[in-house]
Amino acid sequence: MRIMLIGSGGREHALAWKIRQSEMVEEVLCVPGNGGLKAEPKVRCLKEPGTQAEWLELARAEGVDLVVIGPEAHLVNGLAGAFRAAGIAAVGPDADAAALEGSKVFAKLFMRRHGIPTADFQVFTDHQSAVAFLEANRRPLVVKADGLAAGKGVFPCRDTAEALAAIQRIMQERAFGEAGASVVIEEFLEGEEASCIALTDGRNIRLLASSQDHKRLLDGDRGPNTGGMGAYSPAPVLSQELEARVVEEVFRPVVEGMRKDGRHFSGILYAGLMIDGAELKVLEYNVRFGDPETQALLPRLRSDLVPALAAVAGMGGDLKKVELDWSEDACVCVVMASEGYPGPVTRDVPIEGLEAAGALAQSVVFHAGTRFEAGRHLTSGGRVLGVCGLGVDVAVAVERSYGAVDRIHFDGAFFRRDIAHRALTRRT
Ligand code: AMP
Ligand code: GLY
């Protein structure tokens, strides 16, 4: 099989690394890929085309059997459906179902319509009414821009001044462009967060192992939200009992609700959850693999991922019966970022020590913002590497991942020192 993998981040490196280990796979075409992907066996990186027609042309010219799409923007723009319409199998929902991630207003109304537990909310399309609501409801609230904003359009606000400032940025200053034409204002939930990712062919649902990411920049979960500074798997907060509830209360209503609404959801379904005792609420849905959760998940998967992806894409095989064999080991992924992240960063800084880190037992280094030039790996973005360690428990995995981090050096490298601390200090 020839698989085209779209994207250039750490999630895509982890996916390509896993996919290329499959005996079913002849070649993985990564578009555009990154410096680390270039060095993987069986992987070829290609320049990213501009238009949908060019994507289809590229897939046809390369004889691609299956397309796996990493980033949400392509899904929200309907690329998966376009491949399918051209007779090329693809993992991911059509644009009308990808709206579950592309529009927070759509997602919240969908959850309300189909009885999915989520924070109480109101939708506003004009600034004046949003301000009036905030003035009348002086309590902690969360303000969310409707459209895609690379994880930056969500403002948890402890007081009204903060919420008014968020509304000002989103609706008046249009900091996220048209994504801020509507906002969701919702109840501030307390509890512990966890991520759940499932595969679905539009009928059957298979849960992957649990994981948790760290969105905040600084140790102790302080500082601004980022694309993710690290992740670990499994997430101890998700007991087996809770996982079963997630399938029935969080994922099945999506697959069935979409069908009732005349849409079809197949692909990857990701739920960001808030768990407070026995109470389970959905913070958000994504329609793709999480980043950096995927980097912490896939090293734990002992079985082949490709039959599962093929079943999701309707290429044959029964998703219900596909083997998904998870190691009991824990995996921790520490993100090493460039100085200045999540703001503007310096690029083209040489990265040293990758070989030494990669040679360590039970560790694997996934590249994100890197490029490979003249025999050297250079930084090329905010999040540079996802350094992963496996171990019999989270403590050992933490030790292994930081052992690998300590062998890697680039000027201005920034990373958190406390990834997985919540799993370590948790009392169950
Ligand atoms: P989202 O992109 O909607 O998942 O939001 C990003 C982050 O904001 C989440 O991971 C939570 O940490 C926080 N958040 C979102 N919604 C709420 C809420 N209703 N209550 C508390 N925190 C929230
Ligand atoms: N780690 C959160 C996300 O992928 O959106």
Question: Please, could you describe this protein's structure?
Answer:
The chain has a five-stranded parallel β-sheet, sandwiched between helices. Among the domains are: 2-94, Rossmann fold; 126-181, ATP-grasp fold, A domain (Dna Ligase, domain 1), CATH 3.30.1490.20. It is globular and about 60 Å long. The protein has helices at residues 10-19, 35-38, 52-61, 72-76, 79-85, 95-102, 104-113, 127-136, 160-172, 240-260, 293-297, 306-312, 354-358, 394-405, 421-425; strands at 2-7, 27-32, 43-45, 66-69, 89-91, 121-124, 141-145, 154-157, 183-187, 192-200, 205-207, 212-218, 222-233, 267-276, 279-286, 330-337, 363-367, 370-373, 376-379, 383-391. The chain is built from 15 helices and 20 strands. Helix 6 crosses helix 7 and helix 8 (127-136) runs antiparallel to helix 9 (160-172). The model has no long low-confidence stretch (mean pLDDT 95). By secondary structure, it is α+β, with helices and mostly antiparallel strands. The relative contact order is 0.14. It starts with a strand and ends with a helix. The site of adenosine monophosphate has 15 residues, from strand 7, strand 8, strand 9 and strand 15.
List keywords for this structure.
428 residues, alpha+beta, 5-stranded parallel sheet, 5-stranded antiparallel sheet, binds glycine, binds adenosine monophosphate, Rossmann fold
